[in-house]
From TrEMBL:
It comes from the Archaea. It comes from Methanochimaera problematica. Residues 19-126 form the Pyridoxamine 5'-phosphate oxidase N-terminal domain. This is Pyridoxamine 5-phosphate oxidase. InterPro entries: Pyridox_Oxase_N (IPR011576), Split_barrel_FMN-bd (IPR012349). It holds the Pfam family PNPOx_N.
Length: 139
């Protein structure tokens, strides 16, 4: 796993502050892609793990069950800096991490079902900012 730098974390946090969601790309076992906005996303204390709440996933959840490889894209609209984080996920519907996520979601958005916790372990980070750095692997 790779740890995000403070600068990378700032891009993620600004994205969530302004845009309130990050796109998550998945693919089925046959390679059929899907992209969906994720609004309940947290970077955990270790700076290499994202928690994503499954509130309304259908195709995304099916893809995750077939193929655990995903990509998140986040962007700071103020600086135009953007990054792609790739990794693999684990789906949790019980246990202490799931319970912590469930409680957190219910405290702020009681109408959301918080069906499962998607734990994304970051394995690579790529630059998406336009220009000569676009596409460069940074972690």
């Amino acid at each position: 796993m790779v740890k995000l730098t403070d600068e990378m974390k700032e891009v993620f946090l600004k994205n969530m502050e302004i845009l309130h969601a990050v796109p998550m790309a998945t693919a089925s076992s046959k390679g059929i892609p899907n992209v969906a906005p994720m609004a309940s996303v947290w970077l955990k204390d270790d700076d290499e793990t994202f928690w994503i709440c499954d509130n309304f996933m259908v195709k995304t959840l099916q893809n995750l069950k077939e193929n655990p490889n995903v990509a998140l894209y986040f962007w700071n609209p103020e600086t135009k800096r953007c990054l792609q984080v790739k990794g693999n996920v684990e789906i949790k519907t019980e246990g202490s991490e799931y319970e912590e996520m469930y409680k957190q979601v219910k405290e702020t958005k009681p109408q959301f079902p918080a069906k499962s916790l998607i734990v994304l372990n970051s394995t690579e980070v790529f630059e998406c900012t336009p220009g000569s750095v676009a596409g460069n692997k940074v972690l």
